[in-house]
Amino acid sequence: MLKVAFxxxxxxxxxxxxxxxxxxxxxxxxxxLAVLEAEDRFPEPEGNWVLRGATSYERYVTAAERAALxxxxxxxxxxxxxxxxxxxxxxxxxxxxxxxxxxxAIFEERSHHISRSIPYLPRVARRLHHSRDxxxxxxxLTWFEFSRRDAxxxxxxxxxxxxxxxxxxxxxxxxxxxxxxx
Amino acid sequence: MLKVAFxxxxxxxxxxxxxxxxxxxxxxxxxxLAVLEAEDRFPEPEGNWVLRGATSYERYVTAAERAALxxxxxxxxxxxxxxxxxxxxxxxxxxxxxxxxxxxAIFEERSHHISRSIPYLPRVARRLHHSRDxxxxxxxLTWFEFSRRDAxxxxxxxxxxxxxxxxxxxxxxxxxxxxxxx
Lengths: 182, 182
Prior knowledge:
2 copies of one chain form a homodimer.
Chain A: E1 3-9, E2 14-23, E3 32-38, E4 49-54, H1 63-72, E5 83-91, H2 93-97, H3 100-110, H4 113-117, E6 125-130, E7 140-146, H5 151-162, E8 170-180
Antiparallel strand pairs in A: 1-3, 1-4, 2-3, 2-8, 5-7, 5-8, 6-7
């Protein structure tokens, strides 16, 4: 399990192209984003804002879905991945108060979160970070990487997910778009 | 969601009767246990050891199971609850690498974690705290409260759970037994 800190400020290998408040409060404008990872303890970087999350374990994905995802999921860090997005999300207390089977039913059986996403792989690489138990302002931080020419496909994926029943439970969402400095 | 710290040391309202290393390394012997709770951020008490966890959301319980549990689960803090136990547990990396449906199948369909526990309610009050995403040494901290005369029933529940397939994935478990000071 990786402990990851995303630090918005004046340092880091990613240039911040835009920060949009999709739902609820946004995040302060910054020029750079640094992504720090550690195995043992959470990194504590400097920054105008720092968001933390752990890669943790699967909450909804079944064995069959994991196999389908593994078959098409690309790694992070491809040289072609010049573009990235960090999308922090917080869900409602109503969502979190639901038992596991009700959340799963909304997530996949009704919103098709996994099956909608699969057609966009391997163009989009993705890593999910869990933040809720840490007492962070967001519940999840999802990191996406893709090439410049796949940016339109990524936009399409975001629009598809935001149209779902699952997304009605999103009470805060920020979209940070980035390009790699090199 | 409550952010809870359990501090073993020389302060707190619970007297430590015993600390047993059930599987793996134990915890340092202490005389008292303090339980601190906060809504906003994790308390940072003094102590020879401090374990932290968040009450968080359900990982396996279905709506039907939640209803069955709610019907018989007593609150913490009953005046009759003179006895308590804190049981920190860590599970194997193999467990955490399993997809959700495989963990759920072991947890309930094969180990009957919920259905084995229900007969011991309302004698035993219980609260689960999640620690894994925090980078803590344990994945879960479970807190139990019961009366002196129900201590034998609690021992029986522990023995039943420890005999399950689920428990084969437990790689560290400590049993801290307590009595209330008042």
